[in-house]
């Protein structure tokens, strides 16, 4: 922590106009944690802010009648006190709230304040320690406390209270009790700081009747509640701060301005600096980023120091509001008969003006002659209509096309999306009839004969958000089939196409879902996540779903970064994300299959089970190598889970007699199974070069053949000119020269192959090129049996759009915008049944009856539940009450229009933080929780939503939390088991809970009290329903998921009783009438 340097010195106060007036003095300073501001309070009650590193004056206002005692940074602005009032002011200087002892008698004689949560502040007053919620404007807890408080600091879990006699009390913020008292070697305290679990203090000692600063800094560990070895500071410590990012680093300063930067674990590693102060140093602060130091001396001169100034930040860099500048007055000159034109003037120019050019000028430049059209473009021309020809355009060769595009208004586009709130009540318009769907522009899949535009059904889709959020988007409008689509607003959504393709391969589906019978709690298992995903797609029954858990696991795998298949972080280990969409998708196919194989081995080997995926997808390849000059022969065998398919020419296969001039996909695959290559290699023994010939020959075709299609630009043009290039079936037979492939066995000479196996196309992924590169995306074509029929139909999956499509249209790859990427063929002799309950075979449900805490969870964790016993094993119909809490890891994104209105572009991204499940069946343990899991969140948490979730900083970190922490995989398996064992879930507002958990629960297993007590006007809150129906006030402090789940369970029992007595409709009407009077809030709630 060296390289600290002084940036500037700025006076914070103006000299008084009246020389006889008492001099002003800066009393306190603080860094703003949200914006680049430094706040300062003075002895006259004014509070001022200074912006950025130049400390430009930003705001200044009168906050108090007396001297400002303390200032704290607040998410909404700044919190200040003078001992009599507590005031919350916005960064613009506008008052938000102000509280005095007239509002709360407990606020009399405020001595110190400290933030204990995002919006909660702890006050030391004459009444004791008062915990106050600034958002609600209410006292949440009062603890009697007697002692002269002169200092307070907090880590949001504990508050350290420094007393005048040099003792320090440790206050537990949650329980409101003093858990420990430390004695220091100081007569009184001058400063202290608390970060994470480390507390440091300094003070003064009375020697010979004179107070002097102690040469030692006291250090305490709140984990063990014991003191550590003190840190020496010979000049005498008067100020002490812990570095916010490096908890082991302490910043110490003396009254004379000498500053030390010391590492607690290596006290010899010290950085020394001298702040050029006046008589003494009055304040010493460090920014929340740890990059800046603020120091104010007795002359009210502000010294700003920085560590590595060019790459430092002072805060979270939230933008500041500035006053709008007035528009400059118009300088337009009126031209009339009295004002000549030469009064306007001309800008400086060097060339002859156009008005002065000779009228007989003729342009004879070379630029007027059009360039000759490239022959390759003319050769690629195709007739798309009567007298209309179109040539393909190679962007890689000629660059981006410079063509004007017709403006299409998003709101008016029929393919842009529909909102449920904008639907009419007419029943004829509330749904889309399956047979009439093809007539609508948004679902048109055929190209018009006189145009080359991409049909709307194949275009890239986006989810739009109204003011009601994601729930208002009409996903059902895009899918009238029984097959579920996948949402596109997730990380790496390009993988949706390949995930859907394997979903309809029976062998892969049964393998993935069947693997769920084994308990695999590894955090990087894609096999388990794929099994969950496929099981949820079946249970969704045509409703949209999003693969967030699968994508979360994929993004956590380091190898995925190395390969370059992740979109979210473009700075992967190997340099950057693969930019070509086709190449990225094919690399993902390779990565996915290899990862599934390794995950299978990890889960099955401990149980002594044999792997299956190698038999399903394994392509056995024999490599025969020969050196031409030395005639040296070698051979090797490999097993791949895919086949890289290139053209016969690329495989040196063009000389085989039965390969036509324009080969179809069958010849492409056959040549790739018998690929020949030669290369120049160095012979180390003879110190010369040799030619090595290698034959890569497939010796076994698996049940499911996955093919990555590698095409050059020229080969893409060829397949578009080849009639029926993509084949629905082929037959494969083994001959003396390797595998022989043909579309029809009839006509094949006898003796060509010993036997033939028939392979049928299950589906394929295709790239759809857009007019702009950002519009290029992937879609999936699969064929499936229609419900209740043996005939197979083709379907197209474009993320959440799912439509049936004719076979000839699905297999047609002659369009310029459609390119096959990955094909999957399967052996027709293999059983084609989907085993949707494959997970039942040997199901391991032990996780329901035992704990499995996350690594690093503290032994002193609090357990607030009682595990299930085998006698309580869930069965179909078992009632369980559930409630979940979440934290925000990405804030929502808005677009501000020119008229000032706000449009939601992307909602906030939330992560599961806590799940509580209670017993719901009548009995001795009715309403007793058996799951109360706090989930470890490794991502950076943007907002803990403490007021609504009850989750506080440090609760989800195994190093600091006292909760029963588990991984997401553990809690998800518990809920998945309860779902598949037939449990019925009771809760309030379960739609959002299930969406964030990423689980699809059939309606028959859901009992949502928010739906039961809904009359079509507004959704009633759990708090209001509990007050009206149960005469109970809940959620008075922070939310507690156990309390909320219990309340929802009691509301459901009340609902059943009302239905039984035929009083429900009457009661519901009374609830809404009473809600109108109470504004749908319990009395006393703001």
Automatic annotation (TrEMBL):
Its cofactor is a divalent metal cation. CDD domains: PAN2_exo. InterPro entries: PAN2, PAN2-PAN3_catalytic_subunit, PAN2_N, PAN2_UCH_dom, Papain-like_cys_pep_sf, Ribonucl_H, RNaseH-like_sf, RNaseH_sf. It is an enzyme of class 3 (hydrolase). A divalent metal cation binds at residues 883, 885, 993, 1044. GO terms for cellular component: P-body; PAN complex. One of its GO terms (molecular function) is poly(A)-specific ribonuclease activity. Keywords: Cytoplasm, Exonuclease, Hydrolase, Metal-binding, mRNA processing, Nuclease, WD repeat. Belongs to the peptidase C19 family. PAN2 subfamily. Catalytic subunit of the poly(A)-nuclease (PAN) deadenylation complex, one of two cytoplasmic mRNA deadenylases involved in mRNA turnover. PAN specifically shortens poly(A) tails of RNA and the activity is stimulated by poly(A)-binding protein PAB1. PAN deadenylation is followed by rapid degradation of the shortened mRNA tails by the CCR4-NOT complex. Deadenylated mRNAs are then degraded by two alternative mechanisms, namely exosome-mediated 3'-5' exonucleolytic degradation, or deadenlyation-dependent mRNA decaping and subsequent 5'-3' exonucleolytic degradation by XRN1. This is PAN2-PAN3 deadenylation complex catalytic subunit PAN2. It comes from Cyberlindnera fabianii. The lineage of its organism: Eukaryota, Fungi, Dikarya, Ascomycota, Saccharomycotina. The gene is PAN2.
């Amino acid at each position: 922590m060296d390289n600290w340097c002084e940036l500037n010195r700025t006076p914070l106060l103006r000299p008084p106009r009246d020389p006889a007036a008492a001099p002003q003095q800066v009393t306190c300073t603080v860094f703003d944690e949200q914006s680049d501001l430094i706040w300062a309070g003075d002895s006259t009650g004014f509070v001022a802010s200074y912006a950025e590193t130049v400390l430009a004056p930003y705001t200044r206002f009168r906050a108090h009648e007396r001297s400002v005692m303390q200032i704290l940074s607040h998410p909404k602005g700044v919190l200040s006190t003078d001992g009599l009032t507590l005031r919350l002011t916005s960064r613009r200087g506008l008052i938000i709230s102000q509280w005095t002892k007239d509002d709360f008698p407990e606020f009399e004689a405020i001595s110190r304040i400290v933030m204990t949560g995002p919006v909660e502040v702890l006050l030391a007053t004459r009444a004791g320690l008062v915990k106050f919620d600034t958002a609600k404007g209410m006292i949440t807890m009062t603890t009697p406390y007697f002692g002269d408080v002169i200092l307070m600091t907090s880590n949001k879990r504990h508050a350290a209270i420094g007393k005048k006699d040099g003792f320090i009390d440790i206050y537990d913020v949650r329980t409101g009790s003093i858990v420990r008292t430390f004695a220091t070697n100081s007569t009184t305290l001058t400063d202290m700081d608390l970060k994470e679990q480390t507390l440091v203090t300094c003070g003064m000692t009375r020697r010979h009747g004179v107070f002097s600063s102690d040469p030692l800094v006291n250090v305490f560990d709140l984990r063990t509640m014991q003191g550590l070895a003190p840190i020496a500071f010979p000049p005498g410590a008067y100020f002490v701060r812990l570095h916010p990012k490096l908890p082991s680093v302490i910043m110490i300063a003396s009254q004379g301005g000498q500053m030390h930067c010391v590492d607690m674990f290596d006290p010899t590693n010290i950085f020394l600096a001298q702040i050029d102060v006046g008589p003494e140093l009055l304040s010493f602060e460090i920014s929340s980023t740890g990059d800046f130091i603020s120091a104010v001396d007795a002359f009210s001169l502000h010294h700003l120091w920085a560590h590595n100034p060019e790459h430092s930040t002072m805060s979270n860099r939230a933008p500041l509001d500035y006053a709008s500048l007035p528009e400059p007055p118009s300088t337009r000159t009126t031209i009339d008969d009295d004002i000549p034109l030469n009064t306007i003037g001309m800008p400086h120019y060097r060339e002859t003006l156009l008005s002065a050019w000779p009228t007989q000028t003729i342009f004879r430049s070379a630029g007027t002659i059009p360039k000759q059209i490239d022959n390759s473009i003319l050769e690629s021309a195709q007739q798309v209509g009567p007298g209309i020809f179109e040539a393909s355009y190679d962007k890689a060769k000629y660059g981006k096309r410079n063509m004007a595009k017709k403006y299409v208004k998003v709101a008016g586009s029929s393919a842009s999306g529909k909102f449920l709130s904008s639907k009419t009540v007419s029943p004829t318009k509330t749904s889309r009839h399956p047979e009439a769907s093809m007539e609508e522009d948004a679902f048109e899949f055929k190209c018009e004969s006189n145009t080359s535009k991409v049909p709307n059904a194949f275009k890239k889709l986006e989810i739009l958000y109204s003011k009601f959020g994601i729930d208002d988007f009409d996903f059902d409008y895009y899918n009238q089939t029984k097959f579920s689509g996948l949402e596109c607003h997730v990380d790496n959504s390009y993988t949706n196409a390949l995930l859907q393709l394997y979903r309809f391969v029976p062998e892969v589906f049964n393998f993935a879902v069947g693997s769920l019978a084994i308990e695999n709690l590894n955090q990087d298992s894609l096999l388990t996540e794929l099994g969950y995903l496929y099981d949820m797609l079946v249970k969704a029954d045509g409703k949209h779903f999003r693969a967030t858990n699968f994508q979360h696991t994929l993004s956590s795998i380091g190898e995925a970064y190395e390969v370059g298949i992740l979109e979210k972080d473009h700075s992967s280990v190997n340099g950057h994300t693969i930019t070509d969409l086709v190449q990225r998708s094919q690399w993902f196919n390779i990565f996915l299959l290899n990862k599934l194989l390794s995950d299978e081995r990890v889960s099955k080997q401990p149980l002594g089970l044999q792997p299956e995926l190698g038999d399903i997808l394994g392509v056995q390849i024999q490599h025969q190598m020969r050196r031409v000059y030395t005639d040296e022969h070698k051979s090797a065998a490999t097993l791949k889970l895919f086949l890289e398919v290139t053209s016969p020419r690329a495989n040196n296969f063009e000389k085989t007699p039965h390969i036509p001039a324009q080969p179809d996909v069958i010849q492409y695959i056959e040549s790739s199974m018998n690929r020949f290559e030669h290369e120049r290699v160095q012979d180390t023994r003879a110190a010369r070069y040799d030619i090595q010939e290698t034959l890569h020959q497939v010796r076994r075709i698996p049940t499911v053949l996955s093919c990555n299609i590698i095409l050059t630009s020229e080969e893409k043009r060829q397949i578009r000119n080849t009639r029926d290039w993509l084949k629905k079936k082929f037959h494969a037979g083994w001959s003396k020269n390797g595998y022989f492939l043909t579309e029809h066995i009839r006509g094949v000479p006898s003796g060509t192959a010993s036997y033939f196996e028939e392979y049928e196309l299950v589906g394929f992924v295709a790239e759809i090129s857009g007019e702009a590169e950002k519009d290029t995306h992937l879609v999936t074509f699969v064929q499936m049996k229609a419900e209740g029929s043996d005939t197979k139909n083709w379907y197209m999956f474009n993320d959440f759009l799912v439509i049936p499509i004719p076979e000839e249209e699905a297999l047609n790859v002659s369009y310029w915008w459609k390119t096959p990427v990955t094909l999957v063929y399967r052996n027709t002799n293999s059983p084609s049944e989907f085993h949707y309950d494959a997970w039942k075979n040997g199901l391991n449900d032990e996780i329901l009856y035992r704990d499995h805490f996350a690594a690093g969870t503290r032994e002193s964790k609090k357990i607030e539940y009682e595990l299930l016993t085998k006698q309580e094993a869930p069965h179909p119909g078992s009632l369980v009450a559930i409630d979940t809490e979440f934290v925000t890891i990405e804030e929502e994104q808005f677009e501000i229009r020119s008229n000032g209105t706000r449009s939601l572009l992307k909602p906030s991204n939330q992560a599961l933080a806590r799940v509580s499940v209670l017993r719901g069946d009548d009995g001795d343990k009715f309403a007793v929780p058996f799951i109360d899991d706090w989930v470890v969140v490794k991502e950076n948490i943007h907002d803990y939503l403490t007021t609504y979730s009850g989750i506080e900083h440090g609760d989800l970190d195994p190093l600091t939390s006292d909760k029963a922490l588990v991984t997401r995989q553990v809690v998800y398996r518990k809920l998945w088991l309860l779902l598949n064992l037939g449990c019925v879930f009771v809760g309030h507002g379960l739609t959002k809970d299930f969406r964030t958990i990423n689980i699809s629960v059939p309606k028959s297993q859901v009992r949502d009290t928010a739906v039961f007590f809904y009359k079509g006007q507004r959704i009633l809150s759990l708090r209001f329903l509990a007050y009206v129906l149960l005469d109970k006030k809940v959620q008075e402090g922070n939310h507690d998921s156990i309390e909320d789940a219990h309340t929802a369970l009691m509301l459901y029992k009340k609902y059943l009783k009302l239905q039984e007595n035929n009083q429900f409709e009457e009661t519901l009407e009374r609830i809404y009438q009473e809600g109108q009077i109470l504004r749908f809030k319990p009395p006393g709630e703001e």
